[in-house]
Amino acid sequence: MENLETSCPNTWCPGCGNFGVLAAVKKTVNSLLDQGVKKENIVLVSDIGCSSKSTDYLNLNSFDSLHGRSIATGLGIALANPDLKVIVVIGDGGALNEGIAHLVHAAKRNSNITILMHNNRLFALTTGQFTAVSPKGLKGKSTPEGVTEEPINPLELMLDSRASFIGRSYSAKIDHMASLIEKAVKHDGFSFIEILQPCVSFFNNFQFYNEKVYEIEDKERTKEEARKLIEEWNYNSEGKIPLGLLYSQKRDTYENLINKSIKGKEPDIKKCLQIRL
Ligand SMILES: Cc1ncc(C[n+]2csc(CCOP(=O)(O)OP(=O)(O)O)c2C)c(N)n1
Ligand code: SF4
């Protein structure tokens, strides 16, 4: 077992769902190392927010990006060195508000990166403003009378953006998360996992999830079958919440296609420098 601890003091609130996600990521990394993946070939890219503090707590190569820009950063890293396993840790605010365009385009391109979206359904680090997935009626600092808008379904967004791996897990289910994350990292192409992660300080919905979640069978599904499962929960209070691998598809990656298309056409650096001079 590799010790992935760091000396950084943990500043998450006691009981936060992020602790479960951290434990699952450690488990996955250890399993990958046991299977021969080199530690230096695993890169963690964080966004900004409570969830993104994970890079402080994991002794791995990492890059702290800007809010909403970690997916573009991860894509750049994967493009520069296709041998790396790139894992992006991001909150729902970073992924679905500030960074939504990067998320959609990385999925469309099938970039070979794994996105772990810690979904606490609000901007937690800034003390509870609403995001695109906050339920209608949620009261917080920016919505004292309650959110008036309907939430979006991020998994439906991923399906329509042509994501080739879509899964959902829950921070209270460490083994389930770890095995899904391992599958996502091994998937050749863009993998998106939504992790339901209660924020005990601003939206404590552990009980709600404990009553609603159920695990689905691990099998291949058509887009229509996946959509049916994805639409079971409306991100308000109606419906049951399926957990597991909802959809996956084999498709050439962005990095492969780009590298193939430029093979033999690499720019002559000396010539470029001469032009600049
Ligand atoms: C471009 C930009 N907008 C806003 C902020 C302020 N900000 C810092 S953390 C944060 C909330 C993060 O929320 P989320 O991405 O959902 O992650 P969480 O804290 O919930 O894990 C915000 C709005 C920022 N740093 N940069
Ligand atoms: S504010 Fe919420 S998400 Fe952030 S550490 Fe505290 S409980 Fe966790």
How would you characterize this protein structure?
This protein has 277 residues and is of the alpha/beta class. The chain has a single domain, classed as Thiamin diphosphate (ThDP)-binding fold, Pyr/PP domains (Rossmann fold, 3-Layer(aba) Sandwich), CATH 3.40.50.970. Helix content is 36%, strand content 17%. It has eleven helices and eight strands. The protein has helices at residues 18-34, 54-57, 70-80, 92-98, 100-109, 154-160, 174-186, 206-212, 223-230, 254-262, 269-276, and strands at residues 42-46, 61-64, 85-91, 113-119, 165-170, 191-196, 213-215, 241-248. It has an eight-stranded mixed β-sheet with strand order 2-1-3-4-6-5-8-7, with helices on both faces. Helix 9 (223-230) links the parallel strand 7 and strand 8 (241-248). Helix 1 (18-34) crosses helix 7 and helix 4 packs across helix 5 (100-109). The chain starts with 17 loop residues before the first helix and ends with a helix. The site of thiamine diphosphate (TPP) has 19 residues, from helix 4.
